[in-house]
Amino acid sequence: QEVDFEERLGELDLRSDSDIPDVPPQTDSTPEILKRALSGLSARWKNWWIRGILTLAMISVFFLVIYLGSFMLMLLVLSIQVKCYHEIITIGYRVYHSYDLPWFRSLSWYFLLCVNYFFYGETVADYFATFVQRREQLQFLIRYHRFISFALYLTGFCMFVLSLVKKHYRLQFYMFAWTHVTLLITVTQSHLVIQNLFEGMIWFLVPISSVICNDITAYIFGFFFGRTPLIKLSPKKTWEGFIGGFFSTVVFGFIFSYFLAQHQYFVCPVEYNSETNRFVTECEPSELFQMKKYSVPPLLQAVLGWETVNMYPFQMHSIALSTFASLIGPFGGFFASGFKRAFKIKDFADTIPGHGGIMDRFDCQYLMATFVHVYITSFIRGPNPSKLLKQLLILQPEQQLSVYKTLKSHLVEKGILQPSLRG
């Protein structure tokens, strides 16, 4: 029996892509109460109502998490990351029949823990410096964080090499690559989402809401007006839905940004207060979130009848975010569609009735997270005095004194401090 099993896995290594078997069909997870309530409708309208009801439910839960604060949002991002990872890895197990490969399921989850340990450890070192300074055990972990992370990864790497079995090498390396690409897609991107959140909740909410708005409005416009196919990877996508979603998303992002920019809770950077052990969002809003007067272009003056308009500078940035969410963001969905077609599956999972898996709903969000992070670092972020101060507090007293003397000398030379303060 052991010989037969090895021969069967050896044959799998020689298959072409066209020989990949179909993944077992997913079950219908629609609640029975919805099935009975919508039983008289056609399949098209039944799917429309199921998607609509579940969409409203998910949006309601999302608003509840926002109300609960930044920490709960971070837990939500982590939960979504783990579920997306599970869905993609499970497809690999099914497609390549790799359930019986030695150690591999354990190794896949071990690598997830290692990568999360690395990224979240970096976040703790950056944003929780004063908290770490008070605990000697954490100081050791932070000081040698990258070495520990590297050692943990090497352990998994060596375990993988030791698990290699004759005649199964190609299959095992398929799954090794599958695991690492999945880690790149899920863990790295979710880390960027949290980094964006620390810049201010508005940098988290506007991009995510823009993608959700584009997804909903494109579906509605396509459902009612769609006639012209957009891309072969997604036959149901239409130009009418794509264009309608674009204009709707830009308008939504502009208006939504106006309301969020009025509240410190959304615009202030998220910081951890070690004295109260809570995240705080209190600050003097930056210029991005202070009302300014802008001149209306002459062409629009004739249409609107306005010469000037008052708005927040962030609203201009929201146009860039919404444009990316509606023009480039959908390509994350097209990429996911190509992935599913390559492996002959309809959805990543059947977690959400009418929607598929969690990854089916967040395929565009990961691409958006990367863009927002690059946008902030390229056009928005300047020196962060609060973060710099936390790093200075970690230094030894003699190092802090050296920094103080150097800074004082520099300020005197610039004329910012009075010469009388030299002594």
UniProtKB/TrEMBL annotation:
Domain of life per record: Eukaryota
Gene Ontology CC, one term: endoplasmic reticulum membrane
Pathway(s) served: Lipid metabolism; Phospholipid metabolism; CDP-diacylglycerol biosynthesis; CDP-diacylglycerol from sn-glycerol 3-phosphate: step 3/3
EC number: 2.7.7.41
Catalyzed reactions per annotation: 1-octadecanoyl-2-(9Z,12Z-octadecadienoyl)-sn-glycero-3-phosphate + CTP + H(+) = 1-octadecanoyl-2-(9Z,12Z-octadecadienoyl)-sn-glycero-3-cytidine-5'-diphosphate + diphosphate; 1-octadecanoyl-2-(9Z-octadecenoyl)-sn-glycero-3-phosphate + CTP + H(+) = 1-octadecanoyl-2-(9Z-octadecenoyl)-sn-glycero-3-cytidine-5'-diphosphate + diphosphate; 1,2-di-(9Z,12Z-octadecadienoyl)-sn-glycero-3-phosphate + CTP + H(+) = 1,2-di-(9Z,12Z-octadecadienoyl)-sn-glycero-3-cytidine-5'-diphosphate + diphosphate; a 1,2-diacyl-sn-glycero-3-phosphate + CTP + H(+) = a CDP-1,2-diacyl-sn-glycerol + diphosphate
Any single Pfam family the record assigns to this protein: CTP_transf_1
Residues annotated as transmembrane: 48-80, 101-120, 140-162, 174-194, 200-226, 238-261, 314-336
InterPro entries in UniProt: PC_trans, PC_Trfase_euk
Membrane topology, record value: Multi-pass membrane protein
Class of enzymatic activity (EC top level): transferase
GO biological process: CDP-diacylglycerol biosynthetic process
GO molecular function: phosphatidate cytidylyltransferase activity
PROSITE patterns on file: CDS (PS01315)
Keyword field: Lipid biosynthesis, Lipid metabolism, Membrane, Nucleotidyltransferase, Phospholipid biosynthesis, Phospholipid metabolism, Transferase, Transmembrane, Transmembrane helix
Subcellular location: Membrane
PANTHER family recorded: PHOSPHATIDATE CYTIDYLYLTRANSFERASE (PTHR13773), PHOSPHATIDATE CYTIDYLYLTRANSFERASE 1 (PTHR13773:SF16)
Family classification: Belongs to the CDS family.
Name this polypeptide is given: Phosphatidate cytidylyltransferase
Organism from which the protein derives: Ceyx cyanopectus (Indigo-banded kingfisher)
Organism placement in taxonomy: Eukaryota, Metazoa, Chordata, Craniata, Vertebrata
